[in-house]
């Protein structure tokens, strides 16, 4: 393979707590998100992804304090998302230390937001988050943490977002999310075909085998949460297994 796959730790945040659910439901408090982020950083994770799980419901993003704390002693790329509705909202999380911003709900409602963000901060800062759920012969794009249907075909939406100026695509399988029983590999392969942009695959990671398969399907990065939070494995163990399977990882 020509590229090294990136491993991203996803940290879902509610208030000041790290939380995790299954298919975005039944959120369970796990502790201080910074403690988890620091552990993954020390283990060699490549990037962090912070998502405010209730921001879209309440129209606000509460990640500022967490981001400021994180950037004091963690020095890897950070993406922040949840409730980002405007150029100003994204500007705030970037100012607080995020390198990239993930948008979903607001972009579905007003796609030109993607173009506005790309113009203001550069496409490299704009990550389109796609929460995809199987329907009929494909996948539908959902929002508000997999609660609401958009009526849009997820793959068509990925292509549109690329034209609007997104720089990266985070595609999460709502069906697989949080279950640790395997990723939706058909979705990953289809997303790869839908765009030339870097693709972050997420949802249902059960271990290194899933990550290897995702890489072979064209994913540039894989985001994991539950298997790390619940100590099912570690970052070094994952990287070692992935490398052993013939897929390059970052040192």
TrEMBL record:
UniProt entry tagged with the keyword Lyase: yes
Superkingdom in the source lineage: Bacteria
InterPro entries: Aldolase_TIM (IPR013785), His_biosynth (IPR006062), HisF (IPR004651), IGPS_HisA/HisF (IPR050064), RibuloseP-bd_barrel (IPR011060)
UniProt organism field: Candidatus Ruthenibacterium avium
PANTHER family the record matches: IMIDAZOLE GLYCEROL PHOSPHATE SYNTHASE HISHF (PTHR21235:SF2), IMIDAZOLE GLYCEROL PHOSPHATE SYNTHASE SUBUNIT HISF/H IGP SYNTHASE SUBUNIT HISF/H (PTHR21235)
Protein function: IGPS catalyzes the conversion of PRFAR and glutamine to IGP, AICAR and glutamate. The HisF subunit catalyzes the cyclization activity that produces IGP and AICAR from PRFAR using the ammonia provided by the HisH subunit.
Reaction catalysed by this enzyme: 5-[(5-phospho-1-deoxy-D-ribulos-1-ylimino)methylamino]-1-(5-phospho-beta-D-ribosyl)imidazole-4-carboxamide + L-glutamine = D-erythro-1-(imidazol-4-yl)glycerol 3-phosphate + 5-amino-1-(5-phospho-beta-D-ribosyl)imidazole-4-carboxamide + L-glutamate + H(+)
Pathway named in the protein's UniProt entry: Amino-acid biosynthesis; L-histidine biosynthesis; L-histidine from 5-phospho-alpha-D-ribose 1-diphosphate: step 5/9
Subunit structure: Heterodimer of HisH and HisF.
Enzyme class: lyase
Protein name listed in UniProt: Imidazole glycerol phosphate synthase subunit HisF
Keyword terms: Amino-acid biosynthesis, Histidine biosynthesis, Lyase
EC number: 4.3.2.10
Keyword Lyase set for record: yes
Database matches in Pfam families: His_biosynth
A GO MF label: lyase activity
Family as reported in the entry's similarity comment: Belongs to the HisA/HisF family.
GO biological process: one example: L-histidine biosynthetic process
């Amino acid at each position: 393979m020509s590229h090294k796959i990136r491993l991203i730790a996803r940290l879902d945040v509610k208030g000041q707590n790290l939380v995790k659910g299954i298919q975005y439901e039944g959120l369970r408090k796990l502790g201080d998100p910074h403690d988890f982020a620091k552990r993954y950083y020390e283990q060699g994770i490549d990037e962090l992804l912070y998502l405010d799980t209730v921001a879209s419901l309440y129209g606000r993003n509460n990640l500022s304090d967490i981001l400021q704390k994180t950037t004091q002693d963690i020095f890897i790329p950070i993406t922040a998302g949840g409730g980002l509705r405007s150029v100003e909202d994204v500007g705030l999380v970037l100012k607080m230390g995020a390198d990239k911003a993930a948008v979903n709900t607001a972009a579905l409602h007003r796609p030109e937001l993607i173009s506005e963000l790309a113009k203001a901060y550069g496409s490299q800062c704009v990550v389109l988050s796609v929460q995809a759920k199987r329907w009929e012969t494909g996948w539908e794009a959902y929002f508000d943490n997999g609660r609401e249907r958009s009526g849009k075909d997820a793959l068509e939406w990925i292509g549109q977002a690329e034209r609007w100026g997104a720089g990266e695509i985070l595609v999460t399988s709502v069906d697989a999310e949080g279950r640790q029983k395997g990723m939706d590999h058909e979705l990953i392969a289809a997303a790869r075909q839908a765009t030339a942009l870097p693709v972050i695959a997420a949802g249902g990671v059960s271990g290194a085998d899933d990550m290897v398969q995702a890489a072979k399907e064209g994913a540039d990065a894989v985001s994991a949460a539950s298997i790390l939070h619940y100590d099912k494995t570690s970052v070094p163990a994952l990287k070692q297994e992935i490398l052993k399977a013939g897929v390059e990882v970052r040192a």
